[in-house]
Amino acid sequence: MASPAVHDLNSLISSEGRDFLIRNNGDQVKISSLIGKNVGLYFSASWCPPCRRFTPIFAGVYEKLASKGDFEVIFVSSDRDDNSFKDYFSKMPWLSIPFSDSDTIKRLKELFKVRGIPHLLVLDANGKVSTDQGVRMVSDHGVDAYPFTSEQIQLLKEREEEAKRNQTISSILVSNSRNYLISNDGNQIPVSELEGKVIGLYFSVYGHGACDEFTPILVDAYEKLKEKGQNFEIVLISFNDEDEEFKEALKSMPWLALPLKDEKCRELIRYFEISEIPTLVIIGQDGKTLHPNAVELVEEHGSDAYPFTPEQLENLAEIQKAKLESQTLESLLVHGENDFVIEKSGAKIPVSELVGKNILLYFSAHWCPPCRAFLPKLIEAYNEIKQKDKEFEVVFISSDRDQDSFQEFFSGMPWLTLPFGDERKKFLNRRFKIQGIPALVALNKSGRTVSTEARKLISAHGADAYPFTDERLKQLEEELEEEAKGWPEKLKHELHEAHELVKTRRSYVCDGCDGVGSGWSFHCGECDFDLHPKCALKKKEESKEEGKEGWVCEGDVCRRKA
């Protein structure tokens, strides 16, 4: 945000006995030579990873602006020693306050309230702050952000909106210095050759788990479409920093790419508002955006997702609906020769033996603290349900990182599992859109999906939630409402003596037993304190117990009867 204050550059960055700045070769530059220029104060340090990532980007922008002659940057170091400062400053093309002038550095940080780095504050030619959001401006707009005023950013936003209205494949992929893409054999392919094609812009990072899992799926779909002669192409927009990683990525990809660290890469991330990877943006034959992220479509339907039009998406939705309606346990758990699960002894249990049972698919991992915390609750519910209904089973689907961790975690479970590393896990993750663990998917005796929120149901109701149907949940709700009629509207509790607890409907974590709750709570809004009714009322009812004759014990105190 710009500030109305006007700063005299000489008094701002000079100190007693110093009226100069330094270059990384040791040359001194008089502060007076910067008067009348736009000046950036760059607060940064070598120990800071975001700073190390931003500095080369900013250096590239600076070198393009340097020829204007009206812009300069001053490094304000937060390094911890002189050697670190010198090594870091050696990579910078601009000026710096000497590292030894710690008083000036400290004064600037306090004056401009620098709370984090990297931080770029820009002063205009008159010494007025143009912006303290220079890092974001450079990251988003590069050299076009100059002179870093709010008016310039507004102009860029208006241009961007106009560009979206008139979007073409050339406006997306061509830059001022480049009108080509590169193939995985190193050839330059003119962007003009993509005109009239459906294009997938693939935002990815080589070495990132989700991207590495999705890339082979996308390759398979791409090659099938090419075999059919479809007018389709993919362009990689890589987030990698290292040349070797980029080259390795291209070896596994039969399509085109923007050059590594091309200025368009960051621009497209902002332009398409990329917030997750992998992302596959689909551009239609007319150059307009057809779909903001087709990753799930390709995972679920492969090449059949092409050409990604609204009509095709409607067709796919109908196909998906039919799949869900015809879903069976075998369609989920039988893939080729993988037609079994295993028990703790390692013995294979045919999936056919589970047909006709109510099944919970338990997505979990040993490395995940919430999974380890939830496991005892699930085991308790499992044992209770098994006593009522033998036609019930749980199948563990592991996200563990190695066989030993898998074995250790599974050894404490009383149910069945898919083998570690089984390919069916990827299919099930996609089918049920598993975004986090632990997760529980409930299937009925026909193999149809009853609930993808069974974890919440177990947490809230334990074994009583079984068999997780809407009818059962409605029944539980009615029972709970009836039971709640007999509870007090307010109560005092020894675990929260400061305020009364009020009977409230909400989702919460019980501060008494640490269990997840939903529905009724005894709640203190002022302290955000919750007790599950079982904890609140149990304490109230059971805290008083008979001690020695003539005494009453409450909590950790025994008192004589009145």
UniProtKB/TrEMBL annotation:
Gene: LOC111471940
EC number(s) given by UniProt: 1.8.1.8
Gene3D superfamilies with a match to the protein in the record: Glutaredoxin (3.40.30.10)
UniProt family annotation: Belongs to the nucleoredoxin family.
Domain Thioredoxin: 1-158, 318-463
GO molecular function terms noted in the UniProt entry: thioredoxin-disulfide reductase (NADPH) activity
Signal peptide bounds: none
Keyword flag Oxidoreductase: yes
InterPro entries named in the record: C1-like_sf, DC1, Nucleoredoxin-like, Thioredoxin-like_fold, Thioredoxin-like_sf, Thioredoxin_CS, Thioredoxin_domain, TryX_NRX_thioredoxin_dom
Catalytic activity: [protein]-dithiol + NADP(+) = [protein]-disulfide + NADPH + H(+); [protein]-dithiol + NAD(+) = [protein]-disulfide + NADH + H(+)
Protein name: protein-disulfide reductase
Organism encoding this protein: Cucurbita maxima (Pumpkin)
Sorted UniProt keywords: NAD, Oxidoreductase, Repeat
The keyword Cell wall biogenesis/degradation appears for this protein: no
Source domain of life: Eukaryota
Enzyme class, spelled out: oxidoreductase
